[in-house]
Design a protein that fits this description.
- The protein is mainly alpha-helical and 234 residues long.
- The protein has 7 helices and no strands.
- α2 runs antiparallel to α3 and α4 runs parallel beside α6.
- It is elongated.
- The C terminus is likely disordered.
């Protein structure tokens, strides 16, 4: 059978030599510098991200630990002291390491790496400050912890704390709802969450007033408020 004349066998064709880059070429040197700079930035980002994750984990643990305060056990001062020591350690170790990584750097390039840990730390620290001073804070993330404190206080029979916490949440919401922040999506999302937390605490206080000692058994705290609920503010 005659061979296909259109077929060309390149198996024995000589292979071309791979061209070697001229390392002295200014363009090559520039791209080598770019690659080194990007590798350095990536490594720095990963180190900061790891530090931020450690801060997030420890901050969540501290918040959980702060919820162990129980008026019946009279453990408030002991819990607050240990929480303060742990938060101070985060500042001295983790945040110091992040600050050293960001020295002489554009901090906004690494914002996504350290921001989650910073936010969780602020939530833990402000919650501790609230428990210490029973004062109102300016950070919207705190409201979720206040809602949990209200429910936990009901379970321990501390109805006075339920009322105080509900009042603080109402004042929070009154202030935040007056802001013109429809274009700030993240803040508006937090305000929506704040509203849900406030209505849950109001549900707790309603059950305390109506049912007294049976409130903890009768209340349904998982029920989400409807979207058409009138907050009373426009």
């Amino acid at each position: 059978m005659p061979k296909n004349q259109g077929y060309r066998n390149n198996n024995n064709a000589p292979r071309r030599r791979q061209a070697q880059l001229d390392e002295q070429n200014p363009v090559v040197q520039a791209f080598r510098n770019y690659a080194s700079e990007l590798d350095s930035k990536h490594d720095r980002h990963e180190r900061i991200l790891k530090l931020s994750r450690d801060i997030t984990i420890e901050s969540k643990r501290i918040i959980f630990f702060l919820h162990s305060i129980d008026s019946r056990k009279q453990n408030k001062s002991k819990v607050l002291e240990e929480a303060k020591q742990r938060l101070t350690k985060l500042i001295d170790v983790n945040f110091r390491a992040i600050a050293q990584e960001l020295r002489n750097q554009d901090v906004y390039q690494f914002r996504a790496a350290y921001s989650p840990g910073l936010q969780e730390f602020i939530e833990a620290y402000t919650y501790m400050e609230y428990l210490e001073n029973e004062d109102k804070d300016r950070v919207s993330d705190l409201t979720g912890e206040l809602m949990r404190r209200c429910i936990n206080s009901l379970g321990s029979g501390d109805t006075e704390t339920c009322m105080e916490t509900c009042k603080a949440l109402q004042q929070f919401y009154t202030g935040y709802i007056s802001l013109n922040c429809q274009r700030a999506r993240e803040l508006w999302r937090k305000i929506t969450t704040m509203r849900q937390s406030m209505l849950k605490t109001e549900n707790v206080c309603y059950n305390v007033k109506v049912r007294g000692g049976e409130a903890a058994k009768c209340a349904n705290f998982d029920q989400k408020p409807g979207d058409d609920t009138d907050e009373g503010f426009y």
